[in-house]
Amino acid sequence: MSIFAKRIHVCTDIEAPAETVWRILTDFAGYHEWNPMLSEVRTVLEQGAVVRFKAARPDGGQLKLKARITVKHEDSELVWKGGSDLLLSGEHYFRLHKLRDGGCRFEHGELFRGPLLPWVAPMLRDGARVYQAMNEALRCMAESTQNLKEISL
């Protein structure tokens, strides 16, 4: 990668079906209950829709941002892109891969690009920690939901 591109990528295996994880991941109204990275997300879950969200910064602050959903594949992938291609953009992705054991692998990350990136890069230095915190919170939520389903059967 050049100095004008930076990727954050984290991956977590979750012992719950992809459909369960997708349902939690796309229940944006419930994010404030479990998500340490994205405390508020407002959108309609369809390609082309505007996404307004508050994202945690590694220093503990929050950013108010806006993006547009560019990819939506039910139970497997959601991507939104925001910013400016001329200055600084971010393409945030969530991907679910079904595993043979009935669980799934959650890939989560973002590709930042643009000439302003060298000035923003210091704020992203601990970014993987914030993304991983969301992955772990999602894993805990999905696995506890799955365990509740199994107990009630």
What is the beta-strand fraction?
Answer: 35-45%
Largest sheet: 7 strands, antiparallel
N- to C-terminal distance: 49 Å
Instruction: Kindly report the spatial arrangement of strands forming the biggest sheet.
Output: 1-7-6-5-4-3-2
Low-pLDDT ranges: none
Order of helices and strands: EHHEEEEEEHH
Strand runs, count: 7
| Class of secondary structure makeup | alpha+beta
> What is the percent of helical residues?
25-40%
Rounded to the nearest angstrom, the radius of gyration is: 16 Å
User: What is the count of helical runs?
Assistant: 4
Given the C-alpha coordinates, what overall shape results? globular
Mean pLDDT: 92
In short:
The protein is α+β, with helices and mostly antiparallel strands.
Describe what this molecule looks like in 3D.
- With 153 residues, the chain is an alpha+beta fold.
- The chain has 4 helices and 7 strands.
- Strand 5 and strand 6 (88-98) form a beta hairpin.
- Helix 1 crosses helix 4 (127-152).
Key traits:
153 residues, alpha+beta, seven-stranded antiparallel β-sheet
SSE blueprint:
Blueprint: E1 5-14, H1 18-25, H2 31-34, E2 38-42, E3 50-56, E4 62-73, E5 77-84, E6 88-98, E7 104-113, H3 117-124, H4 127-152
Antiparallel strand pairs: 1-7, 2-3, 3-4, 4-5, 5-6, 6-7
Helix pairs in contact: 1-4
